[in-house]
Amino acid sequence: MIDRSNRRWVGLVFISLAVSLIIVDSTIVNVAVPSIVDELKISSTEVQWVQEAYTLVFASLLLLFGSLADRVGRRRLMLIGVVIFALASVFAALAPDGRLLILARLVQGIGGAMILPTTLSLINATFRGRERGIAFAVWGSTIGGMAALGPLLGGWLTTAFSWRWAFGINVPLGLIILVGVFLTIEESREPVRRGLDIVGAALSVLLFGPLVFGLIEGRTYGWWSSDRPFSIAGWT
Questions:
Q1: CA dihedral defined by 61, 208, 23, 79, rounded to 10 degrees?
Q2: Distance CA 93, CA 105 (A)
Q3: Distance between CA atoms of 50 and 40, rounded to whole angstroms?
Q4: Domains of the chain, with CATH numbers?
Q5: Which residues are within 8 A (CB) of 51 and not within 5 positions of it... i.e. 6 or more apart?
Q6: pLDDT per residue over 123-132, tens digit each?
Q7: CA-CA distance, 32 to 101, in Å (whole number)?
Q8: CA atoms within a 13 Å half-sphere pointing along the CA-CB vector of 50
Q9: Bigger pLDDT: 188 or 177?
């Protein structure tokens, strides 16, 4: 039987694995793009959105889910995010065309936005003093390491199996994270002193969504004036 102190460190492994899930997925797709194009016959615009749809939704919802986690429970929201991420990965792996693949990537972004801020909050609530510094160092190192590992893993899966496994690998990893976090990490939340700032949450989405979209698509549609009609996955 693992005592409470050791269980926290085992839980850190699963929290770090959850961070790995979203970091790897943001880089692994870049390597799989040529195979995706060959099989699904998608356009260059669709390719761009397969890569960027995840980032757009992810960045837009981080603040919202970070605030929501403090109220509904950090572990709970994280586990929900892992489930959403894994299910979206299934749909991405089975996508028959570019539109459904882009939609699956958008949903993955929602799950990822639930996971990242809750991992930080769980570490902050679980560890104290010097241990907290060590835990955050492990968390940060995981992000750096997985950013480098993602392209290698994507290349291996695409070459040895199929580009669909670049998404399918998230399912068994998600199951491991669900079980591990549930067994080793205690629930935590902040005492609710006031209601959720709905207006502030909406403004954060409206601010970060267009900002990230502009940075992604400014080169395509024009920075100061419109160079072409907006379209995504065939919709104009």
A1: -10
A2: 10
A3: 12
A4: 18-186+198-212 (1.20.1250.20)
A5: 29, 30, 33
A6: 888 888 888 8
A7: 13
A8: 30
A9: 177
